[in-house]
Design brief:
Shape: globular
Distance between the termini: 60 Å
Number of strands: 23
Structural class: alpha+beta
Radius of gyration: 24 Å
Number of helices: 17
Strand content: 15-25%
Helix content: 10-25%
Mean pLDDT: 78
């Protein structure tokens, strides 16, 4: 791949970064996998590091959306599942606990022989991990009516988001607005996520006090069938999927209304393999998708892929119809025709409108009659629209939310996180005195990012390794991370007997992504200066940041916004593995490389969790790259709107179909 093409892709990603509602692609907690040893991969298959090398095509930037992922997303292990007990099938009257249609899965029978991994002693009690479930061929889907406890079923709500989608083609943009609030909600995927809820939403009388805890957010804890009825692995690289019956395309212009077929699914996934498409990394291990019958699809992988189910559950893996695509050659200007719970009726610059799909294959959903999505760029204006009753649900700025919940007890609010997004800090480990590990650690021990989080974000953020992990149980505990910072005793131990030569000076290059980034760079500069080192803070444009910092590695220390990541494994191989051309910091660790390679082929989720925890420890031990303030997103709504469980994970929007209206009471 030429340097000019690589430069174009990365610069487009860096320069297009925007923090928006529901933003960022992230990786779910890993599913059960079966190990594929290095010897089980055919000799014609590229090596693990080659599979995660730089992409081979330029990604066209979206002018108004978050940037296209610039990391490859291949993985190296084949999924399997452990059968689990049948979910409850009794009718529930609580819409917040309605089971999803699912049943006992088919147990795959991979042909590769597992190689027992070397165990890593757990640092804590293993927790339940997400399972992949599907309905056996002989059993039809089971639905449970989500009857509202009180209030009415139906009605239309108004939602305010900060940005318009760039266009309507779900496959050609990574925009979370498009996927989670725009045309994307009209579509279905082959799989989807089932979400847990941390409990009741906070009331307007609750203050946003205390530091953010990821355990207070919703988490994806299970991958279940959406369009599929069952699945199994014919071998370690062939995934066979049987589609559920009686799924119809929305009967809108250009007038489909026919049943979904395996040919439609194959067409849609194969369309995404075009390397110029922004979301093509989701299928970079897909060699071919073929319809073997009217209701069965086979996905042939280039190598075992542990994250294939996560990718197929991503909102950007929407199944689109051949007729809609062929009408204009793409879906940039529509038409948006899917099989999902919502039918798009209006797509304009300032607003979008969706009506309930009366022929949706889950007949009890959606609970609302319609959703109007208004584009209100200014955060204060969004909050005003909520407070005056013009909107039912918004994503407010934190300071506006704090003020609103103190004044309006009828308001509700919640939050979610993205551990991979936020303010990134990196040290060039191949430049000047920063090659010394003790000095990088001394800088971190001299710095207190948590104090900065309290000042800039009212405690509503957290430090992370940057891995796109949704489940808080897979994130390194905050007490372990905090032990790497703000410890004067450790600074003295590291610097004992060491005199830093005179004339040593560093420059912190900070991308102009917002005032928080500048403030973070200045705070870090103070920590560096406390060690007797001269330091300058140099703000650079987002384009300079992409070209000079990311591509040319012209920096000592940088503070900026990272490009979004589509999977854990792709990020580890592309950013942290010493064999990658994208290893911007130049950090090299045989121990970290070995852990990255092991987790990619680990079949036991509990063991893989421990591997990923150890990887996060190694990242912080290396003192070279982390998130000083990972993103936390807030939502607020009036109490008449029930079962609101918003999230930012893989732009999922199914929760919109499960909201319902109660009595409108406002103060």
């Amino acid at each position: 791949m030429s340097r000019s093409i690589l430069r174009t892709g990365i610069v487009a990603a860096i320069c297009g970064l925007v923090l928006v509602i529901g933003c960022s692609e992230t990786e779910s907690t890993p599913t059960e996998t079966v190990i594929a040893t290095a010897t089980s991969i055919p000799t014609s298959t590229p090596t693990v590091v080659e599979q995660f090398a730089t992409p081979t095509a330029t990604i066209t930037p979206e002018p108004t959306a978050t940037p296209e992922p610039i990391e490859p997303t291949a993985t190296v292990s084949a999924p399997t599942v452990t059968p689990e007990s049948q979910p409850p099938t009794t009718t529930s009257t609580d819409p917040t606990s309605t089971p999803e249609p699912t049943a006992t899965p088919i147990t795959p029978t991979p042909t590769v022989t597992p190689e027992p991994p070397t165990p890593i002693p757990p640092t804590s009690t293993p927790v339940p991990t997400p399972q992949i479930t599907a309905t056996p061929n002989a059993i039809g889907p089971k639905f449970v009516t989500p009857a509202p406890v009180s209030g009415q079923r139906g009605g239309e709500i108004k939602v305010a988001v900060p940005q318009s989608p760039p266009h309507q083609d779900i496959h050609k943009s990574v925009s979370p607005i498009l996927a989670a609030w725009g045309p994307g909600i009209a579509y279905s995927r082959v799989f989807r996520y089932r979400w847990n809820s941390p409990g009741e939403a906070h009331s307007g009388t609750d203050a946003l006090s205390g530091r953010y805890d990821p355990n207070t957010s919703t988490s994806a804890y299970e991958i279940i069938c959406d369009l599929c009825e069952s699945w199994e692995f014919a071998d370690d690289t062939t995934l066979s999927i049987k589609l559920r019956p009686n799924v119809a395309w929305q009967d809108t212009n250009p007038g489909l209304g026919r049943d979904l077929t395996a040919t439609d699914v194959a067409f849609s996934i194969n369309r995404l393999t075009d390397p110029t498409f922004a979301n093509s990394p989701l299928v970079n291990t897909v060699a071919e998708v073929r319809a073997v019958s009217d209701d069965t699809v086979e996905i042939e992988l280039t190598l075992p892929d542990a994250e294939i189910f996560d990718k197929l559950a991503d909102a950007r893996m929407a199944i689109v119809s051949p007729e809609a695509v062929n009408l204009n050659g793409d879906l940039i200007e529509g038409p948006t025709i899917g099989t999902g719970p919502w039918i798009q009726t209006v797509f304009e610059t300032g607003a979008m409108r969706f009506e309930a799909n009366q022929d949706y294959f889950v007949p009890e959903l959606p609970l609302l009659d319609g959703i109007i999505v208004a584009i209100i760029e200014d955060a204060a204006s969004r909050t005003t629209s909520l407070r005056t009753g013009q909107m039912d649900l918004i994503q407010p700025a934190l300071n506006d939310l704090v003020d609103a919940v103190e004044r309006f007890p009828e308001l509700r609010w919640t939050r979610s996180h993205d551990a991979s997004a936020g303010i990134e800090v990196a040290f060039n480990t191949r430049r000047g005195y920063l090659v010394h590990h003790f000095l990088r650690n001394a800088i971190l021990y001299s710095w207190d990012p948590n104090a900065l989080i309290d000042t800039l974000h009212d405690g509503q953020s957290f430090i992370s390794s940057g891995l796109p992990l949704n489940d808080p149980h897979w994130l390194l505990p905050s007490e372990e991370i905090d032990s790497r910072f703000n410890d004067r005793k450790m600074v003295l131990e590291l610097m004992e007997g060491i005199s830093i030569p005179r004339g040593i000076d560093f420059t912190i290059r900070v991308g102009q992504f917002g005032d928080d980034y500048i403030d973070t760079a200045n705070s870090l500069a103070s920590a560096v200066q406390s060690l007797g080192i001269t330091v300058a803070v140099e703000p650079v444009s987002t384009r300079q940041f992409g070209e000079e910092v990311w591509l040319d590695r012209d920096y000592d220390i940088y503070v900026g916004a990272p490009p979004p990541q589509s999977s854990v494994t792709s990020m580890l191989f592309a950013i942290h593995h010493s064999g990658s051309l994208r290893n911007t910091t130049g950090y090299s660790s045989p121990e970290l490389d070995a852990l990255i390679e092991r987790q990619a082929t680990e079949n036991n989720p509990a063991t893989r969790r421990e591997l990923l925890l150890e990887i996060q420890r190694e990242i912080f031990r290396g003192a070279h790259l982390f998130r000083a303030a990972a993103n936390v997103y807030h939502w607020s709504w009036w109490s008449h709107l029930n079962n609101v469980v918003p999230n930012t994970f893989r732009a999922d929007s199914f929760w919109l179909a499960r909201m319902w209206l109660g009595d409108r009471v406002r103060g």
